[in-house]
Amino acid sequence: MLAIIWHSRTGAAQAMAQAAAQGAAQAGAPAQLLLAEQINPAQCIAAQGFLFVCPENLGSMSGEMKAFFDRCYYPLLEQIEGRAYATAIAAGTAGQGAQAQIDRIVTGWRLRRVAPPCIILTGADRPDSILAPKALPHTALQKCRELGQLLASGLEMGAF
């Protein structure tokens, strides 16, 4: 099972997570959307692989996604080593800060990146556009569907 662990503030990351889940379903593979604020270590242990989806806020991952890592990091040490992961970041103009932060954290879990980072830029760079609800273009959502398809099918075939 692919665990799609997500958090969203304005809808962009949520749409990305849902698109990835659609892609996994198209591949005929099980995936579960798990809200970062609610997930527990047992749910992570049950997963074969992970897709972490969140917005970049102030150059780092959202606080709720960080809280997930804070809550689950130590209970999962030596429990999920070698499992596949990928990331999808919704960002206004960059995304690399959140990306690097997640990569650093999962290094301790010894997860294996199996797909390049997926960073979707919304162009939001002013208070009104940053806080506004986001609607992503079809091309961005298609990229997320393809990522979900890749991860889920790779897990199903044992490629990861």
Automatic annotation (TrEMBL):
Q: Does the keyword Flavoprotein apply?
A: yes
Matching InterPro entries: Flavodoxin/NO_synth (IPR008254), Flavoprotein-like_sf (IPR029039), FMN_Rdtase-like_dom (IPR005025)
Q: Which residues cross the membrane?
A: none
Record flagged with keyword Lipid metabolism: no
Keywords in alphabetical order: Flavoprotein, FMN
- Highest taxon of source: Bacteria
Q: Which PROSITE patterns match?
A: FLAVODOXIN_LIKE
Per UniProt, residues of the Flavodoxin-like domain are 2-160
Q: What is this protein called?
A: Multimeric flavodoxin WrbA
Protein source organism? Novosphingobium capsulatum
The organism that produces this protein has a lineage beginning with: Bacteria, Pseudomonadati, Pseudomonadota, Alphaproteobacteria, Sphingomonadales
